[in-house]
Amino acid sequence: MNLTVIRTGTADSWAAITGPDIGTMTITMFTADRMVASFEAALPPLNATAPLTVTGGAINAYLQ
After folding, report:
1. Cα–Cα distance between 52 and 14 in angstroms, integer?
2. What's the whole-model pTM score?
3. Domain count within the chain
4. Which of 23, 42, 52, 57 has the most CB atoms in a 10 Å sphere around its CB?
């Protein structure tokens, strides 16, 4: 999964596009019309000075 984060109003950005694993995603529900998951990651900096650590991320997606 590719992920890019840009801090609004600055040039700071982080991205996980290719390379080694940088985090985890755990799917707790997956049905024909819904997916629920949690995630955490340490994104490498692109135009920032330090990695961006994300903990307690949540996904609650309704699928079509």
Report:
1. 7
2. 0.70
3. 1
4. 52
